[in-house]
Specification:
Helices cover 69% and strands 0% of the residues.
Amino acid sequence: MDDTPSARPAGSPELTPLALLNIALRGLMEFVIVLAFGIWGYHAGSSIGTKLLLALGAPALGFG
């Protein structure tokens, strides 16, 4: 048996490559959703002020 100390804290689960892929895909999907809310907000506004307000406010309201 290998008695060298692990870099992980005791009791923490080991992340498999599939679990890492799952975490990466979830993060990417969240980013794309926030981006989509911002793009929708930008295109929903009529003036530059409302475009910017909606582009920043829609993601904040959507995830707030």
